Amino acid sequence: MRRASLLVFGFCLLASLVFFPIAGMGQQRGGVGGEEAEMLAARFVSDYDSLLNGYLMRRYADLSRRQKAAAGEPPVVIFDQVPDSVIARRLRAMHTVIPMNYNEVVRSHIRMYLSRMASRMDVMLTLAEFYAPVFEEALARWNVPEEIKYLTIVESAMNPEATSRKGAAGLWQFMYPTGKMYGLEVNSVIDERRDTYKASDAAAHHLHDLHGIFDDWLLAIAAYNCGAGNVNKAIARSGGKRNFWEIYPWLPRETRGYVPAFIAATYVMTYYPEHGLRPAKAAIPLRTDTVMIEKNLLFCHVTQYTGVGIEELRALNPQYRADFIPGDEGSYPLCLPTEKMNDLIGWADTMFAATADSLSRAGKAAIPQVRGAKASAPGSGVYHRVKKGETLSAIASKHGTTVQRLKKLNGLKSDRIREGQRLRVR
Fold it and tell me: For residue 324, which phi and psi values (nearest 5 degrees)?
């Protein structure tokens, strides 16, 4: 099954242009140089930045900047100052069943993370404290190596609301058919590909199945990106070799960058102190609880009676595309900061009654159409007012659509937009 990754674009182009081992490891070093490398790097960083517009992303980034300003910027060890032999030794020293090879392709990815991406990696380190326990539990349940949790950095920048140009969604970037295959509900109201818990379990299950096919974790990771069929084709074209680096030239371009990006992300998330990176001391509630909701519930009433802001509520429950939990149709989870649970329990009957009243008076019109749900009738539309600093890519990701679709809906001939502009998103 063909899969899509948001973050690997710039990396895969770099990797597709060069594949040489590190100097001193068998051959002469090669690489992408000059203006072309700068262009690819700038485009990659731009794509990555568009993922940092979610609630958790912005809050963590702001927190990190404030703490650095108060304490003074910590010294950063420039990647090029660290000998290749040191990085290769660190990768070999990692306790993992996945081979962490070091070559020029991996080197270029590590360098990207630790140079242009250094400030963004601080945010990833903080987000990892929030999501890692969920990932680790799911991976352990399916006997998948723990470090595979870092695939979410390559896939989505740990943004559960991320949506790729090809329609992949969530932290683990499931395409619609693959999500359905692993039991994830996807419709105009709910998209469980964005559910942190269910998507993590589905991803671990999927990776477990892929390892069962190839009996090799790097090949399983490659297949997670491009599908088992494409990996099998590469194996056949290589003459039957079953090692990622030996079938590398026959893999799709994106996948040739995807696996090195994973190795690089694992290195950075393991050895970040040696490079002067550090997570922020999070003020966002890391302690949350989940309750099962068995009656219809609108987010606006949860916000009204618990005091949890709508953006935080969406960030903690990204699977609900229309700010609505269809509890009358089944049992669905609601995640809130732990200290707000008493408010939820105390006001539960009032919130359910308010929701029932809203729906009886306004019907489906009471359910917002701003989080990726389909418009209610032909000719109706959903609009977004452009805020300062927003890009088309960021707006598309927020509303579960694509840049191309936004440009078509609004008759745009370029990606340029202005603050205050009203854009149709549905």
Answer: -150, 135
219: its two tokens: 């090949």
Burial of residue 327 (CB within 10 Å: 0-12, 13-18, 19+) is middle
- Return all residues near 319 (Cβ < 8 A) that are at least 6 apart: 190, 191, 192, 193, 194, 195, 198
Question: Is 293 in a helix, a strand, or coil?
Answer: strand
pLDDT class for 121, splitting at 50, 70, 90? Answer: confident
Q: Show the tokens assigned to 273.
A: 């102190």
Residue at 320: amino acid letter: Y
- Tokens coding 189: 């109201």
Cα-Cα-Cα-Cα torsion 84, 89, 94, 95, nearest 10 degrees, comes to 160
On whether the CB atoms of residues 315 and 54 are closer than 8 A, the answer is yes
Q: Using a CB cutoff of 8 Å and minimum separation of 24, what contacts does 16-19 make?
A: 16/253, 16/256, 16/257, 18/104, 18/105, 18/108, 19/103, 19/104, 19/105, 19/248, 19/249, 19/256
Amino acid at 33: G
| CA separation for the pair 313, 55 (Å, rounded) | 9
Short-list 17, 31, 44, CA closest to 80? 31
CA 302-308-311 angle, 5° bins: 100
Question: At residue 263, what is the residue type?
Answer: I
324 SS3 class:
strand
Model pLDDT for residues 264-317, shown as the tens digit of each residue: 999 999 999 888 887 766 554 467 889 999 999 999 999 999 999 888 898 889
Cα torsion through 263, 131, 194, 154, rounded to 10:
-20
Give pLDDT tens digits for 49-96.
545 555 566 665 555 555 555 555 555 556 667 889 999 999 999 999
Torsion of CA 205, 209, 210, 211, to 10 degrees: 100
Helix or strand run (H / E) with residue 136: helix 118-141
- Closest to 265 (Cα-Cα) out of 152, 414, 146: 152
Angle at 110 between CA 162 and CA 126, to 5 degrees: 50
